[in-house]
Design a protein that fits this description.
The protein is an alpha+beta fold and 270 residues long. Helices cover 29% and strands 12% of the residues. It has seven helices and four strands. α2 packs antiparallel against α3. The N and C termini lie far apart (85 Å).
Length: 270
C-alpha cells in the first residue's frame, strides 16, 4: 500500500497586526521600491527636437550638487584642466563638435555642431564619461593622491538643449555662453581687468567688438580650451548680421516674458 501524499493548503497572508487578510493583489506599499540612486531625483524625459547638421545646438549640463559642494565650485584651474582633457578626447569625433564652452560653478554651457540628434546624444555621453574620469582624478589629487580614487558620474542625469535656427538666435547664444560669467556677476572684483572669462573658450572667439588679444596678458601656464572651428554658416557668418559682440554684454537682461516662461518650463540653469 502506497504512502498518502500530504495536501498543503495555502494560507492567507495577514497584515502586520495579524488581524485582517492582506490585499492579495499586492501593489505599491509605503517604503517599497528602489530608492533614488545617490539621492538624485530623476529628471522627466522629454523628446529631443530633431535638427539638421546646419543648425548648431546650445547645450546646458549641470553638475551633481554633491560634487559641486565637494569641490566648492568648478571654476578652479585644476578642474579647468580636467575638462580641457575631456575636450581633447571628444575632439576626435567628427560627427559632434564642441565649438564653444564656458565653465560655471555648478554647470557647463556649450555650443555644439552635430550631424543629428543621435550624434549629439552619443557625443555628449562620451564627453561626460571622459570629463568624469578626469574630474574624479583631480579630486583625488587634491587629497594628496591618497585613499581610493573616486569613481562615478559627476553630472546630472539629463541635459538641456536648444536648437539654433536663425542668425539672431546664434548671436544671442554666443553672447550668452561666452559672457555667462557676467550674468552670474563673476566679473566683479579681482580679475575684472581681464575683460574675458578665462574659464571659457572666449580667447578663441574672433567676433569680439572691443577686445584685442594683445591687451590681455595671458599667464605662461594658461592653456586655452581645445574647441573646433565653426563649420555651420550660422556660427561662421550668419550671426554677424546682427553686429559683433561686446565683452561687456551681460546676458539675461531684457528677456521678454515668453522667453522667461520657456526657460522656467524647461528647468534651465542660467
Amino acid at each position: 500500500m502506497g504512502r498518502y501524499r500530504k495536501i498543503h493548503i495555502q494560507q492567507s497572508l495577514l497584515n502586520l497586526a495579524g488581524t485582517t487578510i492582506r490585499d492579495p493583489r499586492g501593489g505599491k506599499r509605503k517604503g517599497a521600491g528602489r530608492p533614488p540612486k545617490n539621492g538624485r531625483r530623476k529628471t522627466p524625459h522629454r523628446r529631443r527636437p530633431a535638427f539638421r547638421a546646419s543648425q548648431p545646438v546650445h547645450v546646458s549640463i549641470k553638475f551633481l550638487d554633491s560634487v559641486v559642494k565637494t569641490v566648492d565650485g568648478f571654476r578652479k584651474m585644476d578642474l579647468y584642466r580636467a575638462l580641457r582633457k575631456a575636450l581633447v578626447t571628444t575632439g576626435r569625433r567628427e560627427d559632434m563638435r564642441i565649438v564653444h564652452m564656458s565653465i560655471q560653478d555648478s554647470h557647463l554651457h556649450l555650443i555644439i555642431e552635430a550631424d543629428g540628434k543621435t550624434a549629439l546624444s552619443r557625443g555628449i555621453q562620451g564627453f561626460k564619461i571622459s570629463a568624469a574620469k578626469w574630474i574624479n582624478r583631480a579630486i583625488w589629487e587634491r587629497g594628496g593622491s591618497v585613499g581610493t580614487l573616486r569613481k562615478g558620474t559627476v553630472f546630472a542625469e539629463r541635459y538641456f538643449n536648444e536648437v539654433i535656427t536663425s542668425p539672431r538666435q546664434a548671436r544671442n547664444a554666443l553672447s550668452y555662453v561666452l559672457n555667462n560669467w557676467r550674468r552670474h556677476r563673476l566679473d566683479r572684483g579681482e580679475g575684472t581687468y581681464k575683460l574675458i572669462d578665462k574659464f571659457s573658450s572666449a580667447l578663441k572667439f574672433d567676433g569680439w567688438k572691443d577686445f584685442d588679444r594683445q591687451q590681455w596678458s595671458i599667464p605662461r601656464d594658461y592653456e586655452p580650451l581645445v574647441v573646433w572651428e565653426a563649420r555651420t554658416w550660422l556660427l561662421r557668418e550668419g550671426w554677424r548680421r546682427h553686429g559683433l559682440i561686446s565683452v561687456y554684454e551681460r546676458p539675461g537682461h531684457g528677456l521678454n516674458a515668453a522667453t522667461k516662461r520657456r526657460l522656467a518650463k524647461q528647468g534651465r540653469t542660467g
